[in-house]
Amino acid sequence: MASISSSSAKKLIQIDVSADTVCPWCYVGKKNLDKAIASSGDKYTFEIKWHPYMLNPSAPKEGVIKKEFYVNKFGPRAVQMESRMTEIFKGLGMDYNTSGLKGNTLDSHRLIYFAGKQGFDKQHKLVEELCFGYFTQGKYIGDRGFLVETAKKVGVEGAAEFLEDPNNGLKEVNEELKKYSSHIGGVPHYVINGKYQLSGGQPPESFLRAFQTAAKD
């Protein structure tokens, strides 16, 4: 879906996405973006790049119980929020799973950066699999085994060795955080062709309108 076509007749739509891998709205937005791309009738050539955003940079690496985190942060609202997200995920054909741990997302962002070096197609697929595992299967985003297994699944080579050194990709992730995330108030955030901006879990129609506007330039 994020592939680049050789057809010169199609308008190139470049999408820069800022997201965090533990943000449910980021995953909802991705699914709707994918729907918009699929329904755009092969009119455009897409290039999608994922950039890091950290909702909680000081989150512990070892993780905390997800359900407890939400209750501690949101209090009684946590139950309503979970119920709403369950319905939204159900509408996308998925089960929203709040079991497992929530914690630091830095390693996942390092891996996403690394995948991007091997192709934006692979990067896009990696984000899908990481989010699917975290949000629907109770996988922990900070678990090295889960990260490496997911990378292998989408054809990213050398992930285990890359993640082994905590400095690999660190400089690049920090540079991207500064460049793409320091000026935005929340995620998901999309910039289309460097000009048109969308925020939040937008429906497919919003993306389609943005594609049409960008294609007129």
UniProtKB/TrEMBL annotation:
Residues 14-211 form the DSBA-like thioredoxin domain. Pfam families: DSBA. Gene3D superfamilies: Glutaredoxin. This is DSBA-like thioredoxin domain-containing protein. The lineage of its organism: Eukaryota, Viridiplantae, Streptophyta, Embryophyta, Tracheophyta.
